[in-house]
Amino acid sequence: MKFGFVGTGAITEAMVTGFLGSKLELSQVIVSPRSAETAARLAARFPLVQIANDNQAVVDASDVLFLAVRPQIPEDVIKALRFRQGQAIVIKGGLNEQVFEDFDRKGGTKALTDALDRVYRRIQG
Fold it and tell me: At what angle do helices 10-20 and 115-124 cross, to 10 degrees?
């Protein structure tokens, strides 16, 4: 299974580290290049981590996609992404659900969760 992360900050770093330190069988983890330092650190630490050229490349390569972006990220950034029908998406709480209406109508799958917010709060102490 391939996990992809759009947004490469503290939440993504914690999740990738946790997933790759677990017994979960992943074939690849794809991260966006947005935070080059964090992406490079993850790729250097874990052979399964690859840095995509852009956010769409993350979407295209992922079976499960984590949208771990801050709510301040412009909605047009998310709206520009082309999701596959049936693609599983985990969305960081706080993102406007309206952004995903078109995706839902096309038969996509999404899992709204605030789990990423809990991870972030734990990291921040």
Answer: 100
Domains and CATH numbers, the chain: 2-81+111-124 (3.40.50.720)
Please indicate whether residue 68 or residue 31 has the higher confidence score (pLDDT). 31
- Cβ atoms within 10 Å of 108's Cβ, excluding its own: 16
Nearest residue to 15 (alpha-carbon basis) of 66, 73, 69, 83: 66
Q: Token pair 């109508």 is at which residue?
A: 105
**Has residue 104 got a pLDDT over 70?**
no
> For the chain, what is the radius of gyration of the CA atoms?
14
pTM for the structure as a whole: 0.81
Q: 27: closest CA among 15, 38, 19? A: 19
